[in-house]
Amino acid sequence: MSALRLSDVTASYGHAKALFGVSLTLEQGETVGLLGRNGAGKSTLLKSVIAEPSVTVAGEIAIAGRSLRGLPTYRISRHGVAWVPDDRRVFTALSVRENLELAHTRNAPADQLDKVVASVPLVGRLLTRRGYELSGGEQQAVSIARALMSAPRFVLMDEPTEGLAPLIVEQLRESIARLPAEFGVGVLLAEQNFAFVAALAQRVAIVATGRMAWAGSTAELKNSPDLIDRYLSAGASQP
Ligand SMILES: Nc1ncnc2c1ncn2[C@@H]1O[C@H](COP(=O)(O)OP(=O)(O)OP(=O)(O)O)[C@@H](O)[C@H]1O
């Protein structure tokens, strides 16, 4: 089991800085919540890890002590980091099965599709459907399933519940809950939905205006209404 470690990471879009010296560790087999208001820097942190081209990153990001510095996105993916973007990016003209098969890499077991479908059952019922026929929640399930097709060590999810109905959010929660044990992955869950994070994550980090504002156990945050008021969006669901 290895860890993904961010140390003193600074990120900017051109001249505009969005992250200021952020540090965070994610172990394989655990789920960590990344909370914060709109514009706090959650997506930027995930994009920094995968070296998304719009972001310029300084500081250290490493897996098991091996630096990812300077590597392009596809190489970082080969090191075992998968990203579930907030806009889901399902190929609309392809079937769900084709969307998943395209993401099946050589390092992953031959039966990875069966394993993924067992963990994300919603996707199993959709295999012959085209991307354009899917609801937002179904697209989200496909996006998560696709991330698993490369047998990653770490999965970075960007607001998977955004805009989704409670019933499908519950199905996604059940699937995400299985991932650390069934795939051995570490899940970094960027969210504004605190109830969703609290149901899945043992630890939580809060970013505010690009800085790490607080980090600790989910249980501690649940019992800290002042922190919730200060750092989470008004109306963020509470457990
Ligand atoms: N492509 C971009 N170009 C310039 N600035 C950007 C870009 N993307 C994000 N930003 C800025 O970076 C800061 C952090 O944004 P980010 O998207 O990381 O926040 P977030 O916490 O994910 O918010 P949300 O919950 O709204 O997605 C914000 O000030 C935002 O305006």
From TrEMBL:
Which intervals hold domain ABC transporter? 4-234
Coiled-coil spans are none
Name this protein carries in UniProt: ABC transporter ATP-binding protein
What family classification does the UniProt entry report for this protein? Belongs to the ABC transporter superfamily.
Q: Which Gene3D superfamilies match?
A: P-loop containing nucleotide triphosphate hydrolases (3.40.50.300)
Stored InterPro entries? AAA+_ATPase (IPR003593), ABC_transporter-like_ATP-bd (IPR003439), ABC_transporter-like_CS (IPR017871), BCAA_Transport_ATP-bd_LivF (IPR052156), P-loop_NTPase (IPR027417)
Which terms in the Gene Ontology molecular function aspect does this entry carry? ATP binding
| Record organism | Phytohabitans kaempferiae
Question: Keywords for this entry?
Answer: Amino-acid transport, ATP-binding, Nucleotide-binding, Transport
